[in-house]
Amino acid sequence: RGRARGFLQRDFHCEDREHLSGRAQSQERRVRKSPLCAWCWSGKGLYWHDAVLHNVYVHGRTGTERRKQDLETKRLGLIAATAAVNVGQAAQAAEKSYLSELSVPADLQSYASKVKSFRLDNGAKFIVLERGVSATVSFVTYVDVGGADEEDGKTGIAHFLEHLAFKGTESIGTRDYNAEREVLDKLDDLAERRTELMKSKGNRKAVADIQNEVRDVEAQAEKFVIANDFAKIVQKEGGVGLNAATSIDSTQYYYNFPSNKLELWFALESERFAQPVFRQFEKERSVVLEERKLRVDNDSVGKFLEDLLLKAFEKHPYRRPVIGFEQDVAGLTRRDVKAFFEKYYRPQNITFAIVGDVEYGKVRQLAQKYFGKLRNAPDSDRTTIVEPAQTGERQLTMKLNAEPYYVEAYHVPGLESPMTPAIRLLEGVLSGGRTSRLFRSLIVQQQVALQASFSTGFPGDKYPNLGLLFALPAPGTPIDKLAGALRREVERVKVDGTISEAELDRVKRAIKVAYLGSFQSNEVMASYLCEYAAKTGDAKNALRALTALDSVRPDDVSRVARLIFTEENRTVGRLI
User: Fold this and answer.
1) Eight-state DSSP code of residue 276
2) What SS3 class is residue 258?
3) DSSP string, 544-558
4) Whole-angstrom Cα distance, residue 63 to residue 424?
5) Which end of the chain has fewer CB atoms < 10 Å from its terminal CB, N or C?
6) Are strands 405-412 and 136-143 parallel, antiparallel or unpaired?
7) How many other C-beta atoms can be found within 10 angstroms of the C-beta atom of residue 128?
């Protein structure tokens, strides 16, 4: 109750329930049942009520940042510039991340020395962390493409492609690919004819006739399919946790193997991205549309948050849901997906992280052998749309047969902004556990809320995004009364001197403990390294982010709060 479903940020996809490990299945169940911070749940079993810990573990973002003392003037200048324009547009990703100027914390130097990276001639990047704690290896393939890269009218294609990436290749998942290809080509032609008829509003009988023909040809194609062949190979060879996640910013594929199966992973993963076959297309479309019904159309919070994005963003692709609009998904063709794949699934857009019982030299040798054959291509155009500065409060009220839900959405900078670390501390001050201000005031003292938090990165953080100030009212509490209590706490944190050094130190310690605790998981570590490499240019920035905590002052947090929490920067959402 009170959670925003993951389709808007990280869509959890299980290709085949039977091939999930018992641990993964139990994690999924716990995630789905747990109320999370503000808006997100992750399919990787990471589910904390504490917004700070949640951001650390799930999103690979930690803490707050303060430049070195000699960079103080420059830092304050950036903040001042932000105040003059839309707070979400002040600092886009620079050529060199501000994190690169910081050092790795002393207690993480041993990790940093083991993190090694290399890039193949075709642009594919590999990150290796040798960690022989057990004879296992975690693999994460991070493709720098997500919902934000889709065209208008073709939303949901990145997520659809993720589903189809488990369907096999020219040699996996088929009994006779040459014969199958002829049938698939015929299906593509029929799909194009159906699309043209629908666009031209052709007569219903003609569309229905083609649809019947599509079903017949699909039945022919199904005879060549070896269902779940890719997943069965992974499972047979001792692999666990085979899964993927699509977000507005990226698509990630991950699983784990015994360390003696290292070369098998290279063979499977390279073939999956060199020779994919997007078979069982119509069947998978039905799965995706059913997901949308479950998470949006038949879910009050899901529908509310989808409309909130449309209200808060006017132009930027962050306004669109990762799972796509129903009419767009219904109109996609296999050729659309192939074109999207060819445009964005290029070596220079892919980062691979390999963490566990491996040797760097062996990884480099196998990478060249298997991935060196992938062809490079010129970079594709990326999102350049800048969201116009919001100049006045916006309102969204939805009346549904659901529990009440209150949200204030504020534009905030993306991950690469030098303001980001101070914003992370602001999250912790407001909603970092049971000692946080919102918990103590709204839940314990005033008893006007069952949940309350502030969390940024909605629906992503590659670009300027939204920070959600969220509250679930206690039974009998009017939403207006809850909104007033929430605003009063926000106003208090905006005043210099109201955040003590002790309070800020507590938040910093909590973030560090959570971050270091997450390093116990090879898979989480691999995900961190990939994300920071893709978004900031250096995997080790995942470690440097902790250094930024140390020199942030309480007044820095209040200053950022004053910039973010303004009426003209606010979109208010009420679900009643």
Assistant:
1) B
2) strand
3) HHHHTTTT--HHHHH
4) 5
5) N
6) unpaired
7) 26
Distance between CA atoms of 308 and 323, rounded to whole angstroms?
Answer: 15
Q: DSSP label at 295?
A: I
Closest by Cα among 426, 395, 473, 366 to 128: 366
Decide: 237 and 264 in contact? Cβ < 8 Å.
Answer: yes
**Any idea what the Cα angle at residue 125 is, between residues 122 and 128, rounded to 5°?**
140
Per-residue buried b or exposed e for 186-208, using 16+ beta carbons within 10 Å of the residue's own CB: ebbebbebbbebeeeeeeeeebe
pLDDT at 202: 64
Model confidence band, residue 13 (pLDDT cutoffs 50, 70, 90): very low
44 bridge partner residues:
none
How far is Cα 262 from Cα 277, in angstroms, rounded to an integer?
Answer: 24
Describe the strand order of the beta sheet including 350-356 as a list of residue ranges: 11-13, 240-246, 251-258, 136-143, 350-356, 125-130, 115-119
Task: Name the token pair of 457.
Answer: 């990165």
Q: How far apart are CA 286 and CA 291, in angstroms?
A: 9
Report the amino acid identity of residue 526.
A
Number of Cβ atoms within 10 Å of the Cβ of 485 = 21
Rounded-to-integer distance, Cα 11 and Cα 28, Å: 12
338 CB-contact burial (10 Å; exposed 0-12 / middle 13-18 / buried 19+):
middle
Task: Tell which wins on pLDDT, 292 or 82.
Answer: 292
User: How do 465-473 and 405-412 pair as beta strands?
Assistant: antiparallel
Return phi, psi of residue 450, to 5°: -90, -30
The CA distance from 46 to 521, in Å, is 11
Beta-bridge partners for 118? 126
H/E stretch holding 181:
helix 177-199
The answer to whether 206 touches 199, Cβ cutoff 8 Å, is no
Q: Which helix (H) or strand (E) holds 239?
A: none
- Mean pLDDT for the stretch of residues 104-133: 93
Amino acid sitting at position 551: S
Model pLDDT for residues 356-368, shown as the tens digit of each residue? 999 999 999 999 9
Please choose, from the candidates 63, 56, 66, the residue with its C-alpha nearest in 3D space to the C-alpha of residue 101. 66
Among 405, 351, 344, residue whose Cα is nearest residue 378: 344
Cα-trace Rg, the chain: 24
| Residue 347: cis peptide before it, omega within 30 degrees of 0 | no
CB 46 within 8 A of CB 12: no
